[in-house]
């Protein structure tokens, strides 16, 4: 009888891509795999409670470190692999002149305020980029200047950006790498010298230490040796989200091409 492995997956497209890659690897090892999709905090709550065995992917230490610390008050976790090296950013379309907007404080320039969309559309409130963005709104006085930060769905965020680009409007997008918009669009990161966007994280697979016995040492080594990249995940994410291809077929084809 096959061992069943339950993976908690943060329910965002690029996390689904990475979890799909991991699922294929586990399936090839002989496991039966179930995926459980949930927002950031709920995903970590599931691994804390033991309703899932592992989590894909944790961004450490900046974005998800506080959630990992909470889990480890009751259960030690193993960090496996380096799926990619993510980081949060605020960006503008490349047609916004760099001399006009090169850093966050430039958003306060009167001529920029006159041109820039005042609504800054983010994703769900538990995401690191959402927490960071709320801090930036206050730290830079952007709310007082008339800007408004909103949380919402992935498509709220991405669709707002794509519609603005289609009309060549000035817009700020709270984003991160890897994300499929970078595959198609030139998005210039704007500097944030206060350090409120965190640092470059490590995206890793978390495994409850009390479930490690389900794996051989060779299997744990294989999981620990998984290496993808920001560019690979963004490209696969684009195929799924904008080309309409089936997630597991896209990731299987990529893995098979690496052999």
Automatic annotation (TrEMBL):
InterPro entries: ABC_Gly_betaine_transp_sub-bd. GO terms for molecular function: transmembrane transporter activity. Residues 4-256 form the ABC-type glycine betaine transport system substrate-binding domain. Pfam families: OpuAC. It comes from Photobacterium rosenbergii. GO terms for cellular component: ATP-binding cassette (ABC) transporter complex. This is Glycine/betaine ABC transporter. It comes from the Bacteria. SUPFAM superfamilies: Periplasmic binding protein-like II.
